[in-house]
Amino acid sequence: MPRTPLRVPRAAAGFALLAVLALLATGCGSGDDWAGPRAAPTPLGALGAGFAGPSPTPTPEATITPQPGSWKNVHPPRGYRVVLLTAGDDRPTKTLVRAVREWADAEDVALRTVRAEGEPDLLPAIDRAMDLGPDLVLAVGNTLVDPLATVTPHHLDRHFLVVGAELAEPTENVTAVDWGGASFRGEGLGMSSTYDASSFTPARSAAAVRAGVAAVLHGLTGIVVWVDKY
Fold it and tell me: What is the mean pLDDT of residues 173-202?
């Protein structure tokens, strides 16, 4: 007796086809651009001659004062993975957060945000940022300085950029961008006598983010990038 062909409802067949196409598009993975390791990011564009000064490789913990605009031709590769790690609601921090987000939009950066909710969450927030597997953890907010000083020496394979503050004794994986009105270095050292919240302007904050990322992308890490002039 001949068998009756199995008929698959048209709608079910359509859903099955879409599922197969989705698997092919994602390589049978999660479809998340952040999933899994990848090659080290390569910068697009070169630093200007006046970025690092006469020495092409600054010594660890050195402070360099780039010529204004010497970082402007440097761009991250498309999809550069950055976690914005932030703490605090003060005006300088909000200005820096806005600068990071505008930079990420302009440069087609893959940006995620981790916010520390109060002092007990500072260390866990750093762990959450690292767990995302970014190319760079970009930290803003003075209250993060001491927790970062505790965590970063134990994760030398991770790159950190602190904007508007700095660690007193950074390891090779921590870069900072500072200027005369900023330079907070932790509770043990107190606030700089030259601290000026009004110095955190949108223009300076934007320049600081770009200069810091340019340094990291070119391997100039473990230093302070000073942007009094931008």
Answer: 84
